[in-house]
Amino acid sequence: MEERRVIRVGSRESRLAVEQTMLLLRKIEEYHPELQFELVTMKTTGDMILDRSLDKVGGKGLFVKELDKALRGGQIDFSVHSLKDMPMEQPEGMPIVALSRRGEPRDVLVYPRGGKRRRPEDGRPFRIGTSSERRRLQLKKLFPEAEFLLIRGNVLTRLKKLDEGGYDAIVLAAAGLIRLGLEERIDAYLEPAQVIPAAGQAVLAVQGRSGEDYSYLDCINDEDAWQTAGAERSFVKKLNGGCSSPIAAYAEKKHGQLCLQGLFFDEETGRHSVGSIEGRSEEAEKLGENLADALRLEAAAGA
Ligand SMILES: NCc1[nH]cc(CCC(=O)O)c1CC(=O)O
């Protein structure tokens, strides 16, 4: 029997990261039985800092740095990430080489297991757990009376903290729960018109090394994901390059057109602006930039 070519694949070690990576690998294996994948998991800086909002300690890069090092050093052949955790620009020589078809893009509310959603009459404010400024800013409008509390840790840790009574609800990405087989924990979907998701939410990204042949990834690579996530990420990039201010972006294709919704919060004026733009899919990046310019002006002017 011929030896199968071994490909080493890097992933964060959280259960969600591993589930997502395996999902992708199983798909590739269907098309390429001649390949053998070996999973290499790592703890990242972002997984180790649990007491602060990550916005404050250096942002998105924290979840990918260790894996980048292994990729650069050749210990792994590619790594798999949630696109929304990736910086807007890839390090030299380590581009994104494939994007998966987007999963369920919405954020959701999860209530404590067994406990009914607490009625507001009993006095204390409804406590919503999230560590994302993007989510807090948008949920404040839906739940003006709520109190927002920081929650950190991976998805399973957050669910545990919720069930132990620390919160009346938490906000998570539907995609993560679904991929963990926990869809039944979803109590309410938040429509993008109410809560715009994070750029790249529910898309998986494969990061590789320049010059390597990744043609075996064609089977999972999704053109729509490149266009929609491309518009979302160019919007974010134009506004802050991935720093701390809350930004949301969600694009979808409708009748061949690309429709991008965005939210921008201006730290200087304390105002935020929300808007959308529509155009040709081929101009995804331009659309992102144009919406960014428009929303920046609006937030600055306080229209
Ligand atoms: N920031 C953590 C993170 N990164 C990706 C997902 C879920 C999957 C996805 O959105 O692609 C999650 C959990 C969450 O936000 O609830």
UniProtKB/TrEMBL annotation:
Q: Has UniProt tagged this entry with the keyword DNA repair?
A: no
What sequence ranges are listed for the domain Porphobilinogen deaminase C-terminal?
Answer: 227-295
Q: Which domain of life is it from?
A: Bacteria
Q: Where is the Porphobilinogen deaminase N-terminal domain?
A: 7-212
Entry EC no(s): 2.5.1.61
What cellular component GO annotations does this protein have?
A: cytoplasm
Keywords recorded for this protein, A-Z: Porphyrin biosynthesis, Transferase
What this protein catalyses is: 4 porphobilinogen + H2O = hydroxymethylbilane + 4 NH4(+)
Provide the positions where the record notes the PTM S-(dipyrrolylmethanemethyl)cysteine: C243
Cofactor(s) needed: dipyrromethane
What the entry lists under Pfam families is as follows: Porphobil_deam, Porphobil_deamC
Single GO BP term: protoporphyrinogen IX biosynthetic process
- What's a Gene Ontology MF term here? hydroxymethylbilane synthase activity
State the oligomer form and interacting partners: Monomer.
Miscellaneous comment: The porphobilinogen subunits are added to the dipyrromethane group.
| UniProt xrefs under PANTHER family | PORPHOBILINOGEN DEAMINASE
The free-text function statement in the UniProt record for this protein reads:
Tetrapolymerization of the monopyrrole PBG into the hydroxymethylbilane pre-uroporphyrinogen in several discrete steps.
**Family under the similarity heading:** Belongs to the HMBS family.
Q: What is this protein called?
A: Porphobilinogen deaminase
- What is the originating organism of this protein? Lientehia hominis
